[in-house]
Inverse folding.
């Protein structure tokens, strides 16, 4: 494993343990050159899922893109990266359990919004505003009203 800090090609595993959900192995590593430590995750690879984008182009599913989008949405919010990683694990599992080789970005976006709605309402609205490409303030208010209606229904 190459060091992400100095690109030295050799590192040493200093700790290895399963993740909380037993879906991956977490490995703590140390670079043999610069001595910095970092974490890697080893996961089993399901079938390769291809994502169909809005412009009909296709690319392999990339969990890092999903996580980065969620992190940006939850910026400066009381949401841990670990919580978002668990959500991405669940999203990835849902996609893999579809047993389909291709999935649309629309489907992935809806899964992300479902998870963010449960995690943090502000992060959800931020993600929805970009994902749904709100064109005006009115469409933004409609989404807030819908979220408020969902909250009211849950409380009843």
């Amino acid at each position: 494993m190459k060091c992400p800090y100095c690109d030295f090609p050799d590192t040493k595993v200093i700790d290895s343990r399963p993740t909380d959900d037993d879906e991956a192995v977490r490995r703590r590593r140390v670079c043999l050159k610069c001595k910095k430590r970092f974490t890697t995750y080893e996961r089993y690879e399901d079938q390769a899922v291809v994502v169909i984008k809005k412009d009909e182009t296709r690319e392999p599913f990339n969990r890092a893109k999903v996580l980065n989008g969620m992190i940006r949405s939850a910026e400066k919010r009381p949401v841990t990266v670990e919580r978002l990683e668990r959500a991405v694990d669940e999203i990835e599992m849902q996609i893999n359990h579809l047993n389909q080789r291709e999935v649309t970005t629309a489907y992935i976006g809806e899964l992300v919004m479902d998870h963010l709605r449960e995690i943090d309402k502000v992060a959800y609205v931020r993600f929805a505003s970009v994902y749904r490409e709100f064109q005006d303030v009115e469409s933004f208010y409609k989404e807030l009203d819908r979220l408020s209606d969902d909250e009211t229904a849950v409380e009843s």
Summary: The CA atoms of residues 78 and 120 lie 8 Å apart. The chain is about 45% helix and 20% strand. The longest strand covers residues 11-18. The mean pLDDT is 88.
